[in-house]
Specification:
CATH topology: Nuclear Transport Factor 2, Chain: A
Low-confidence stretches: 66-77
Strand content: 25-35%
Shape: globular
Order of helices and strands: HEEEEH
Helix content: 25-40%
Structural class: alpha+beta
CATH class: Alpha Beta
Number of helices: 2
Radius of gyration: 22 Å
Mean pLDDT: 80
Largest sheet: 4 strands, antiparallel
Number of domains: 1
Length: about 100
């Protein structure tokens, strides 16, 4: 299978994400291509069987580097609120 054919198969999953890693794992049976793509705030990891082109594995993770403003700020605020609630609970226990 050509590199272009493997990437074309991967594009059915990753769309227009940018290819960041491409390697052939030929020590395993069956041999497969391991690809990594990044784009649209996501990181895609795929394994594609080298002879048939079957997608053996497809993982998608959200890439914090591309979208760290809104999500992280909201999470930090929630954590602070939880800490304050814990302090209030401790005070109530001391009063009893």
């Amino acid at each position: 299978m050509t590199k272009e054919a493997v990437i074309s198969i991967a594009r059915t999953v990753v769309g227009d994400a940018r290819l960041t890693e491409f390697e052939l794992e030929s020590d395993d049976h069956p041999p497969y291509f391991e690809l990594e793509f990044k784009g649209n705030g996501r990181e895609y990891d795929l394994k594609i069987e080298a002879v048939t082109g079957a997608i053996l594995q497809s993982k998608v993770e959200y890439d914090d580097d591309d979208d760290d403003d809104d999500d992280d700020d909201d999470d930090d605020d929630d954590d602070d609120d939880d800490d304050d609630d814990d302090d209030d609970d401790d005070d109530e226990e001391d009063d009893d």
